[in-house]
């Protein structure tokens, strides 16, 4: 299995909702990442987990809360989002525990905040 | 992190070879050069990585001159399905990593 899966594919939520994005990989990778991508812009790093511990938080607002329950799973909990948070949220993984430049990306979750 | 400069867009025709050049004048000694491809509404896909001279795989070739201040991604005989955004990234000594910081990328359009 050489892919990163993300669910849901699409999500529409109101500003008062709480929702979660899920990411899964079964490649035995030890680093996992969340990125945010706005239309016509490059992906922007949000969080890095290395060996299931949060190693990088790119000053992301607390309304985004990451969680890594085990080495195969990565969640992003969303609460009280703003319309400007609407974007494609990408998950990625890499083989080694250190943040690596060879990353495998999932297809993303298209999030719309209304 | 070394800053990269790429053309914003390029046009090509099916069957042609496409070369996308990336400038990275302040590349550090232990930096690698990595290229990603991204199709609309999909995650980026790792294409190739190199340190110096030439690297080739089944998808592309990467040419890096001796001074390493630039690099060229070469896509042989492109097809319509190669229409995508291509990102050049510099840093991350091998797998020792560092934060993956994407530049603006080059939007390649392949026409029939």
Through-space gap between termini of chain A: 36 Å
Largest interface, Cβ cutoff 8 Å: A-B, 29 and 24 residues
Count, helices of chain A: 0
Order of helices and strands of chain B: EEEEEEEEE
Radius of gyration of chain B: 13 Å
Q: How many DSSP-defined strands of chain B?
A: 9
Quickly count the helices of chain B. 0
Question: Overall mean pLDDT score of chain A?
Answer: 92
Per DSSP E runs of 2 or more residues, the count of β-strands of chain A stands at: 11
From the structure above, extract its key features.
heterodimer; A: 114 residues; mainly beta; seven-stranded mixed beta sheet; four-stranded antiparallel beta sheet; B: 112 residues; 9 strands; 46% strand; globular
Question: Can you walk me through this structure?
Answer:
The complex is a heterodimer of chains A (114) and B (112). With 114 residues, chain A is mainly beta. Chain A is 0% helix and 56% strand. Chain A has no helices and 11 strands. Chain A has strands spanning 4-7, 10-13, 18-25, 31-37, 44-50, 53-57, 64-70, 73-79, 87-94, 104-105, 109-113. In chain A, strands 2, 4, 5, 6, 9, 10 and 11 form a 7-stranded mixed β-sheet that branches. Chain A has a 4-stranded antiparallel β-sheet with strand order 1-3-8-7, with no helix packed on it. In chain A, strand 5 (44-50) and strand 6 (53-57) form a beta hairpin. Chain A is globular and about 35 Å long. Chain B has 112 residues and is mostly beta strands. Chain B is built from no helices and 9 strands. Chain B has strands spanning 9-13, 18-23, 32-38, 45-50, 53-56, 61-64, 70-75, 84-91, 106-111. Chain B has a 5-stranded mixed β-sheet with strand order 1-9-8-3-4, with no helix packed on it. A 4-stranded antiparallel β-sheet of chain B has the order 2-7-6-5, with no helix packed on it. In chain B, strand 3 (32-38) and strand 4 (45-50) form a beta hairpin. The N and C termini of chain B lie far apart (38 Å). Classes of the chains: A mainly beta (114), B mainly beta (112). The A-B interface holds A 4, 31, 33, 42-45, 48, 56, 58, 88, 90-92, 94-96, 98-108, 110 and B 32, 34, 41-46, 49, 87, 89, 91-92, 95-105.
